[in-house]
Amino acid sequence: MHAYRTHNCGELRKSDVGAEVRLSGWVHRVRDHGGLLFIDLRDHYGLTQCVIEPGNSEFPMAEALRAEWVVRVDGRVEARSGDTVNPNLPTGEVEVRISALEVLSEAEELPLPVFGEPDYPEDIRLKYRFLDLRRETIHNNIIKRAAIIASIRRRMIDAGFFEFQTPILTASSPEGARDFLVPSRMHPGKFYALPQAPQQFKQLVMVSGFDRYFQIAPCFRDEDARADRSPGEFYQLDIEMSFVEQEDVFNAVEPVLRGLFEEFGGGKPVTQEFPRIPFGEAMRKYGTDKPDLRNPIEMSDVSEVFRGSGFKIFAGLLDKHKGGRPWFENAEVWAIPAKGGGSRAFCDRMNSWAQGEGQPGLGYIFFRNGEGAGPIAKNLGEDLTAKLRDELGLADGDAVFFVAGVPKDFADFAGRARTKAGEDLELLDKDRFEFCWIVDFPMFEWDEERKKIEFSHNPFSMPQGGLEALETKDPLDILAWQYDIVCNGVELSSGAIRNHKPEIMVKAFEIAGYDRSVLEEKFGGMLRALTYGAPPHGGIAPGIDRIVMLLCGTENIREVTMFPMNQQAEDLLMGAPGDVSPEQLRDLHIRLNLPKS
Fold it and tell me: Strand 36-43 vs strand 20-33: parallel, antiparallel, or unpaired?
């Protein structure tokens, strides 16, 4: 017989009754039922109920067992009586009658319980992550993550992609988030950087003559934590393809994601044809470039209804801010229709919520008895209120909320108000996965703080219109072949058709304020590569952590990451970041200049 087990703890079935078996695992819990001791034994694969009587010579040892001790049991498989069968357990029709018991390892008093999975402070859970990972829910999440990644690999290989690895130690980039820097011992005063993404390398793979690349790539960014983003490091499905246009990338990625969500989504419906939504349209309809399409609310520009109307607040605002750049300087009034929200109580709650968000309020009209009610309706007049109702397809029992000003200033709030109304009115069908592509992003944006033009998305993207657009158009009017894929309001990825011509790269960086010397210093390898025959190419990089988070039905990425950091980017389990010795610093030619406390 094997030293530790003939079967795992999730394996025994009624067909095994009568067999002599050996199991090893953790004591999940011990129950005393009138002298009989029931020991739930757990391992990676499942749980088996074991039982021992007082007359057994091993009984005193069984009485001493505590939660999370590691034990080995020998015994005979017996069928449970009908009234004791546990239909919720794969092994629930059998139990093991213990004949021998050995303690393989004892556990001290637990800092957090495994059985029952009660809520516990996150710092305790992360410090004792090895215990936290024994809990059934998070243990299953991690196993599901492994299965999802394995499925992704199979799907990518079946689609003709090749998996290549790119460097972890690379050069620092002036774009994007902060780099994690690694000092060089062999080159004093110089630093490597951990890659924020394999962006340049995967493009160089295409320039090198390979065609369809993918990688489950680790990425490193020195940025603050969020619920849907791990601080420090994360993984993405990195993809790049040669001789492709935007639709070719979409056609390659959609089947992978659709199939993945159908496989692991628990039977929830998945979008079959991913809609393409231009960035400008997304911002106007949803107030965000990552819309949750499960929410049926779509916003509308109703400025013309209020222009010159009796509602002087909006009318005056529209007259004051007009004739400028759309989105940046022109004032508009947006309507947020809310079917089923037509009561003063609901409208007042929305108005109070808006004030809690730092806004002066949220104007509204609600409809009852064939007419609009509320201060706006009274000042707007019966005819214009009826026009609004008809344009928005509203009826008695419905409401509409309004935001006004310059769209770039209020779009985010409008989007959150749309989300709030949809959730509070329970308009979302949460048992489905709704995908979409956001396309036609601006190539550049205005940085108000630094008073300069910046890249809005990816500096290596191809501008729509190519070099001619860069030379002849207002930079803020140039669109790029850039796209995001969004699911249920979560941005899974950004991607782009890349610029493969050096003269376009030089001009694009010049517009963003980087002269050729900076370009050659920071991106010299890429610039050189483009001068030696680069194919048209493009790609995308869906986030593995966010995909798993959606498929596990959790909103916190730490629930699907094996050893995450906390919100302060600290690894409480391993004690990172930590101090290093003076000898290590001396080898690296580094002297600390710490801030004064």
Answer: antiparallel
Q: What is the pLDDT of residue 172?
A: 87
Strand order in the sheet with 332-338: 300-301, 332-338, 399-405, 363-368, 371-373
| Contact between 410 and 328 (Cβ < 8 Å) | no
Rg (CA), the chain: 30
Residue 441 and residue 405 in contact, taking contact as beta carbons nearer than 8 Å: no
Taking the complete model, does pTM exceed 0.90, yes or no? yes
Please check whether residue 421 is in contact with residue 401, taking contact to mean a CB–CB distance below 8 angstroms: yes
| 301: β partners | 334
> What's the CA gap between 99 and 52, in Å, rounded?
8
CB 444 within 8 A of CB 453: yes
Alpha-carbon distance of 398 to 569, in angstroms, equals: 46
Residue 372: both structure tokens together: 């609009």
Strands (E), 80-139: 94-105
Across the 597 residues of the chain, what is the mean pLDDT of every consecutive 10-residue run?
96 97 98 91 98 94 97 97 92 97 97 94 96 97 98 98 97 79 94 94 96 96 76 93 98 98 97 97 97 98 93 91 78 96 95 95 94 93 94 96 94 97 96 98 89 88 96 95 97 96 94 89 88 96 96 94 92 94 94 87
Ordered DSSP codes for 523-590: HHHHHHHHTTTPPPEEEE--BHHHHHHHHHT-S-GGGS-SS---TTS-BTTTTBS----HHHHHHTT-
Residues linked to residue 178 through DSSP beta bridges, in sequence order: 222
